[in-house]
Design goal:
264 residues; alpha/beta; 7 helices; 27% helix
Length: 264
């Protein structure tokens, strides 16, 4: 792991110790609820016996899906505390799991053509380039395997959802792939457990443009199967709230792609 890996590892360890919502295992799911929550498009299907890699997706929120569906689950992530929570979820539900500490840009710990699914929740924005990640995912996936990827909407990633001025959310900062947005938003506000808030230094985070992501997947032999935007579910959200922000600027994109030929 390089300097960036170690820096972001320390940041995620601190966030996990602070018990932010992204680091808490889901311990109240049934098989049906898990499928509804994570497989609305029906791509996973019968996962029993399939090899699944939860890539930079630890904390017991993604691995539980595949564990409950009786897949062979591996979680690969920077943060040891987060990986402990994958083990907590596995013990709670009673399925086996394998976890490894590492950087998403280097999957040399895994054999070529080993996985049937690679499931990556919001994490690729924590590296400055998608190229090495996509190349590694294509290598470890079997032909016909699926890659689930979620990342920040690059058009609105630098819009502060809390900066509602009564009329608009201000769009600013360069639309450049690899642009580090952390310089503008260097802290996360985290509940301190005493009814207040404290600031934790943010992991380094970068913009990845729509063209870079989609063309990068295609170049590695992926066929785009489904594209989804995170939309507001509240028909009348209060101005300045997270749901109101989502109604104007979808914060995340999700794409399912299938490996149809060897890229590169």
């Amino acid at each position: 792991m390089d300097e960036l890996s170690h820096y972001n590892q320390a940041r995620w360890e601190e966030l996990a110790q602070a018990n932010v919502e992204f680091t808490q295992p889901m311990l109240d799911l049934t098989v049906e609820l898990a499928r509804q929550r994570w497989d609305k498009e029906g791509f996973i299907g019968d996962a029993a016996g399939k090899n699944v890699l939860c890539l930079a997706a630890s904390g017991g929120q993604q691995s539980v899906l595949f564990g409950l569906l009786r897949a062979n689950v591996t979680v690969f992530d920077l943060a040891p505390t987060q990986l402990e929570r994958d083990h907590e979820a596995a013990l709670h539900y009673g399925y086996p799991i394998e976890t490894l500490v590492g950087d998403m840009r280097d999957l040399s710990a895994f054999q070529t053509n080993h996985f049937d699914f690679v499931y990556q929740a919001y994490s690729i924005n924590f590296v400055p380039s998608t190229e090495s990640v996509f190349a590694e995912v294509a290598r470890v996936l079997r032909a016909g395997g699926y890659y689930h990827l979620q990342w920040a909407n690059p058009f609105t990633q630098s819009v502060d959802d809390e900066a509602w001025d009564g009329e608009t959310y201000l769009l600013q900062h360069p639309y450049i792939d690899g642009f580090e947005i952390t310089q503008y938003y260097p802290h996360w506000d985290v509940e301190d457990g005493k009814g207040g808030w404290r600031k934790i230094d943010s992991p380094k985070e970068y913009r990845h443009t729509l063209g870079t992501v989609l063309n990068g997947l295609i170049a590695q032999g992926f066929r785009i199967e489904h594209f989804q935007e995170a939309l507001n579910s509240n028909p009348d959200p209060a101005p300045g709230t997270w749901e109101h922000f989502k109604s104007i600027a979808p914060p995340y994109f999700t794409v399912w792609s299938q490996l149809v030929f060897e890229g590169g």
